[in-house]
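Human: Not sure, check this?
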Amino acid sequence: MHRRAYHRGALTLKQIILGTAGHIDHGKTRLIKALTGINTDRLKEEQKRGITIELGFASVNLPSGQTLGIVDVPGHEKFVKNMVAGATGIDMVAMVIAADEGVMPQTREHMEICSLLGISHGLVALTKTDLADPEWLELVTEDIKDFTQGTFLENAPIIPVSAVNKDGFDHLLSALDDLCETVDPRSSGGLFRLPVDRVFTMKGFGTVVTGTLSSGRVSVGDPVMLYPSGIKSKVRGIQTHNHSVETAEAGMRTAINFQGLEKSSVQRGDVLSWPGALINTYMLDIWVNYLPGNKRPLKNRSLIKLHVGASEVMGNLILPDRDELLPGESAVGQFRLNSPIALVKDDKFVIRSYSPARTIGGGHVINPVPAKHKRFKADVIDGLKSLSEKTPEEIVEYHVRMSLYKGVSFDELKVMTNLTEKPLLKVLAALMSANVLALVDREKRIYTHRDTLENLERQITDYLGKYHEDFPLKPGLPTEEMKSRFPIGGTKLVNMALNRLTKSRVIVTEEDLARLSDHEIFLGGDQEIIRESLLDAYITSGLTPPYFKDLCGRMEVDHSVAGDVLKLLIDEDLIVKVKEDLYFHTESLNRFKDELIEALIAKEEITTPEIKEIAGVSRKYLIPLIEYLDSKNITIRVGDSRRLRSQTRPT
């Protein structure tokens, strides 16, 4: 559902969320109730204790007609994690400061959190003015101006209000209307994501989750998935501002109920998105800002609380280029988390110390699915530092290059770049057209970098060169063995490299063998002697050759070396292998074959004893010879006799 807001005569459609911020008991909840009529402290414990514990939600129609969603956050320091969950996704903030107390510790911490989350629009609501005289109000106002100096609220209006008598409310509503003018509307395109900040069960509806839709849109009937659990469901119904709608868009406070989803399956901090759209990770590359007000350095591997979206995750902060981060410094880093999380590039976060718990910094995600980095590697550090300034093409190229043989999938690149499908496809097409990237796996849509392919090609040619040196008599290396030598990146990457090398005529692949195109077989002096000796032995022995192992022993030569020479004689068609370890000279074997064919043409069928007379050899050689001719489809066994196969008969 779109809410219409008329500003300066122009029709605009904006989904805007206002968040409160400020110290405990400064009147945030009471101010919202006076504005909207809604008590956002819905829990019995909140009403009993008089403090906000959980997030509260309301909405108000401004004078212009703009509907403003409101998120009320806790002010107590014990519930800062809930405050961060509420602050994520808001467009502007009302910093609530009580006139009778002025700026307090949580006022400062909430200001830091809002700044770290990139909030840039807001105003100051100076509440409880009925408890302060004019002179005191003037002092508090000056104090607030000093406090906001150098922050995003430096020039923001400071509006005195009283929830008791509603003094200043017209001014506040008008200021909120003006503030809405400055907020850019969110794009409903892109990846649908809803960080879950509340989950409950409603009778007749089932499980319901709420959150501020951070990007994209969702409609009734859409398939969805919870991250990091991976649980899938379908949207049964959607509400915004207590009205049922068919579609919710970025910027809306949204309640969604599901088909067949148990409440116990959903936790605050989960993210709702499309199936397969996000990727769970235990590591994040980040840009971190360490607040100037910190009293001590932040050391490498410090245990921290990461607040992002509506989630809180424990982990260690790794500093790749230093041993500690000084107050006021910024640097690249890597979070190594205790539990999985699913984010995209540029997501903003807040970090808090483990003990005592307080806000110490924040930043944004550089890469949501990184590899584990070694520290003090200049290329990694320089690359991470430059990611925030690179173009989409440069970001894609960087990630694919850094992935080396593993490659990067299209789904990974979507979250690494925070680009939607069409823009990312355009970037990839341009890089492939420029021969910078190659699509290695079409089914899984995995890309590799030109540098990686060229490096693999060099390794393959170097390996083949060494292989030819070690085995000069072998015509080439079996391609399957080649693939087993280079398993990194998988068979498809090796196949691509082999195809490229073949196409450029650097290598030759034939009969499942790969060799360098300039490889030629040369026999050394000793090998030439072995060749002549082997050939002479097989020529002389005719149809009664010695077994090869016996021949090697008689010649006193190494079996492996003689085997390479024998393989060369086979390739030259001078020797024929009839069975394991039994070889014949080709001319001797052909003479026997021709005599047998001539006899079978004359008689059509010949018995084994008759074949023995033709060959003039014992059964030791006869049976292997006959079985060899059978295997070559020259003869066929019929009982105890042999006949010519039909295709062998002359026409």
Notes: The radius of gyration is 39 Å. The domain at 4-182 is CATH 3.40.50.300 (Rossmann fold). The CA atoms of residues 457 and 498 lie 7 Å apart.
